[in-house]
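Example record used in the benchmark description.
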Amino acid sequence: MSVRSRGSGPRLEGRERDRIWSEYMEMLASQHPTSRRLPGTKTIAVIILASVLASNLLLFGAQLVAIPRPWNIVLPFASTLGVVVVAVLLATGAIGPRRSLWYAAMRRCGHDVCVICGYWLERRAPDSRACPECGTPDDAQPVALGRRSEVRTWPRFEVEPPPDPSARDDDDRR
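Model output (structure tokens):
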């Protein structure tokens, strides 16, 4: 196996990276048939929309009549910067769920990493059942792709029903 560990985590090379990549693509295709191209399409659409809005603000923003003189020069540049920042944030929103899926693919291929944060679990205590970085249990699932990208599935806890009040003895009621 061609894996070298650098300070924060594994550095994958060659065939091992290709093996994890193929596992990742299988997991991605099983979640949604078009999920491979959705983040790229979303990123391109957001950048095109942001560039159209930013160019209109730069060209026609200085001609705003109701705004006093110093602000009609500063406002187009500030709003253009705001549009670009929002575009970058929206474009990078598609990366987070895919990173968690990458960690899950690494785990399926035999690497000991946390499926949520990617922490390299090689040196944790043997009796520890959770990630020391984020506290995620060992049996957690990766972050789901879809509309709610921050949905995590945790193990179910068994809850006992409350005792029936009619089944108590008469001595307890006094």
